[in-house]
Automatic annotation (TrEMBL), chain A:
PANTHER family: RIBOSOMAL PROTEIN S9, SMALL RIBOSOMAL SUBUNIT PROTEIN US9M
Subcellular compartments: Mitochondrion
Keywords: Mitochondrion, Ribonucleoprotein, Ribosomal protein, Transit peptide
GO molecular function: RNA binding; structural constituent of ribosome
Name of protein: Small ribosomal subunit protein uS9m
Domain of life: Eukaryota
Pfam families attached to this UniProt entry: Ribosomal_S9
From TrEMBL, chain B:
Full protein name: Small ribosomal subunit protein mS29
Subcellular location: Mitochondrion
Organism expressing this protein natively: Sparus aurata (Gilthead sea bream)
Biological process annotations from GO: apoptotic process
Location (main, coarse): mitochondrion
Family indicated by similarity: Belongs to the mitochondrion-specific ribosomal protein mS29 family.
Gene name linked to the record: GBA1
Keywords: Mitochondrion, Ribonucleoprotein, Ribosomal protein, Transit peptide
């Protein structure tokens, strides 16, 4: 079943032959770390890759055919998996066949504009000859909303119910769409000045007191910011025989691994690999790294640290220990303090590793002596 | 006058003192005020400057070494960083700590008819062993003992510029430079006693130079300083004399030997002979003689007493507190944050209450 499943998937991939190269390009980018941070892996990106690969124009019939075939394939897959063919969503596909990178054709093929004029070669849209019809429609629409709000304000003023303290739209959790995102939404190119004018107009709309009427319209053009305070994986707070609270945490940096046990005893003693930390880290800089999380939270003399560390060099061991200490400290802190730590950068593992040496160069970046001739 | 000085200090640090105008009753009032107030600036200063009278109550407090003593007792004994500190602060304040006090109390109770006891200060790097040794040496000096203080045995065992084959014993090597330097310092330290001690033997240095029996030890030392080539042998002779004489009941002086870095006498040396083979410490005259001294047969007994180890730990809470207050008093901590509670906690963390580490950290604050 798995084999036949794979074959179907293979034929699937074979059909989208022209986009296979783009998929391989996308695969190389989809490493473990980047998967969580896919920024703008949208049709905009794929559009660029496809431009290198195959022909740009896809006719409507071609796309329709692709959609039908995709649906049929999806139903086959559902049948094989034993799921209900009707309610088999894209998420189910991703869960069942994680290697299937070919999504719905609407996502794979770029959004293209249908032919804008009819058989008598007269354009459908009244703003066609401006060249940027969707952009100008949008601007007109926005201005229309502004007029609506003004009329509403006038009416209220006439009735005498004009109040200043009204709920405003909460804008803290979102940002304006970027220029590329707006282009993708409007399916046409706009210039920087156009984009700025649009943002200005929206801001002026927001400056009016009763803009909450058009909240839904405004939010359409705002992008939610990514989850700010992602819940960190907190280590468990345990208690040992004497009733002392302690927690254990790990940390990693470059090639060092460390484990730290924080005990809430009340003395400030630190042991690393069985040795005193003054002996282990004779350099002041490393001890400052160890001190940073505790000092930031103001808990310097409170904890007893028992650490083990291995691998890497002096600095990376200190960095690994620092991360482990911050993580261990999480279980003793409140949420607000955890947010402070996160913003201070104490909880982010440092992703920098040693860059590989390239052939044709002396080291990772250093090139051989350049000779003019 | 002393009262005036005291109140002047008060004026600098304590702000709520009334202005002092010279009037008899006014000064007396100030005096009583001084006694009744807790005297924040001198919590860490001991009133006893004499090591003999210092008791355990004074642990953690600083006592001042008189400048005259420093020049005589410690021409070469103090660690270089401490010497810089003396120059900066214009005074030599040493902290009274328990290892030194312990050894001093043992020294007070020594029974001179028994073989000499050896005490070893041991501890982590920078925990204050040399300073404790100097404290004990100061005590010995104030008691009028003869002090044989070798500042750093490591200096004799490495980085030697000149190495001469010994005139006395050809298998051994001489170090004239270090020997003369040490003899010079020895003379400065023990001037009064050198004229009293007489040699018991005749020493022949070259065909024309010799030292008669019964000459003062001072002459022997001068001979060594003058004749650089035979200085190591002079050192050997001095040591032999002292060893023989300190045991006799008729001698009226006590001797104390203090060697810093005594483990160098038995370790490896970095000196190389001309054929690049390394020299054993045994083959150096100075080291050989010193080892004989360490051997504890001053009475002629060959019994090797076990050492009494005295551990020198890092500062305790109280000691750290007093060191911190001392630096504050001397305006050594300039950084505004170092004067706060959190700054103090940071210093504790970063130095782990190790004296030398704390000194280094506070140096740039």
């Amino acid at each position: 079943m798995a084999a036949s499943c794979a074959r179907t998937v293979g034929s699937f991939l074979g059909k989208c032959g022209s986009c296979s190269s783009s998929i391989s390009a996308v695969t190389s980018q989809l490493s473990r770390q980047v998967l969580s941070r896919q920024i703008c892996v949208s049709s905009a990106l794929r559009r660029k890759n496809l431009a290198a690969a195959g022909p740009e124009k896809y006719t409507m019939e071609y796309i329709k055919k692709q959609v039908e075939e995709f649906d049929i394939g999806k139903r086959h897959l559902a049948n094989m998996m034993g799921e209900d063919p009707e309610n088999f969503t894209q998420e189910d596909i991703d869960v069942r066949v994680p290697c299937c990178l070919c999504g719905h054709p609407d996502q794979v093929f770029p959004k293209q504009r249908a032919i804008q004029w009819g058989e008598d070669r007269r354009p459908f849209h009244f703003l066609f000859y401006t060249g940027k019809q969707s952009y100008y429609t949008l601007m007109h629409e926005t201005f229309g909303k502004i007029l609506v709000i003004e009329k509403y304000q006038d009416r209220l003023r006439a009735k005498g119910l004009l109040t200043k303290d009204i709920k405003q739209i909460s804008l803290s959790a979102s940002r304006w769409l970027k220029k590329e995102e707006l282009e993708e939404l409007l399916v046409e190119n706009i210039s920087i000045q156009d984009y700025n004018r649009f943002i200005q107009l929206m801001e002026s709309l927001l400056s009016m007191p009763y803009c909450t009427i058009e909240e839904e319209f405004v939010l359409r053009y705002r992008q939610n910011l990514e989850a700010q305070s992602r819940k960190q994986a907190m280590p468990v707070l345990e208690r040992d025989e004497r009733g002392v609270a302690f927690s254990t945490a790990d940390g990693r940096r470059k090639t060092s691994d460390s484990t730290v046990t924080l005990r809430d005893c009340g003395s400030g003693r630190i042991t690393i690999n069985g040795r005193d930390y003054l002996q282990y880290f004779p350099v002041l800089q490393d001890r400052e790294q160890l001190m940073f999380p505790l000092q930031f939270m103001g808990m310097l003399g409170r904890f007893d640290l028992e650490c083990t560390v291995s691998g890497g060099g002096r600095s990376s061991q200190a960095g690994a220990l620092r991360l482990a200490i911050s993580r261990g400290l999480l279980s003793f802190l409140s949420d607000g303090e955890m947010e402070n730590m996160r913003q201070a950068g104490l909880l982010t593992p440092d992703p920098r590793v040693r860059e590989r040496k390239k052939p044709g160069q002396k080291k990772a970046r250093k090139k051989f002596t350049w000779k003019k001739r | 006058m002393a009262l005036h000085r005291l109140s002047f200090r008060l004026r600098q640090t304590v702000t709520h003192v009334r202005s002092l105008h010279t009037s008899g009753c006014g000064q007396q009032q100030e005096a009583t005020a001084v006694e009744s107030e807790p005297e924040p600036f001198s919590v860490f200063r001991a009133q006893e400057n004499d090591p003999a009278c210092q008791s355990e109550k004074l642990i953690g407090q600083y006592y001042t070494l008189p400048p005259a003593h420093i020049k005589t007792v410690f021409p070469h004994g103090l660690p270089p960083r401490y010497q810089q500190q003396i120059k900066t602060f214009n005074e030599a304040c040493m902290m009274v700590r328990s290892p030194a006090l312990e050894v001093i109390s043992y020294l007070k109770k020594t029974d001179f008819s028994k073989p000499a006891v050896r005490y070893i200060f041991y501890g982590m790097k920078g925990s204050g062993k040399t300073m404790s040794l100097c404290h004990a040496v100061h005590f010995c000096y104030t008691q009028g003992w003869l002090v044989l203080h070798i500042p750093d045995a490591h200096l004799w065992v490495k980085n030697c510029k000149e190495l001469l084959p010994s005139s006395y014993n050809t298998s051994r090597f001489d170090q004239p430079l270090q020997a003369t330097e040490w003899l010079r310092n020895f003379r400065i330290t023990n001037e009064p006693l050198l004229s009293k001690i007489k040699t018991k033997q005749r020493y022949i240095w070259t065909k024309r130079e010799f030292t008669e029996e019964g000459a003062a030890l001072g002459e022997l030392v001068d001979q060594g300083i003058a004749r650089v080539k035979s200085s190591s042998d002079v050192v050997g002779a001095v040591i032999k004399e002292l060893r023989l004489q300190s045991g006799q009941p008729e001698s009226d002086f006590r001797m104390a030997v203090a060697v810093d870095g005594v483990n160098a006498l038995w370790g490896r040396s970095t000196i190389k002979k001309e054929d690049k083979s390394s020299v054993d410490p045994e083959e150096l005259t100075l080291v050989y003689n010193l080892r004989k001294l360490m051997k504890n047969d001053w009475r002629g007994f060959d019994s090797m007493d076990p050492f009494i180890p005295v551990s020198v730990p890092n500062y305790s809470e109280k000691e750290f507190e007093s060191c911190y207050l001392y630096y504050m008093d001397r305006q050594w901590l300039q950084h505004p944050q170092s004067r706060t509670e959190e700054g103090k906690k940071e210093i504790i963390f970063l130095s782990n209450k190790n004296p030398s580490m704390m000194d280094r950290i506070c140096a740039f604050l």
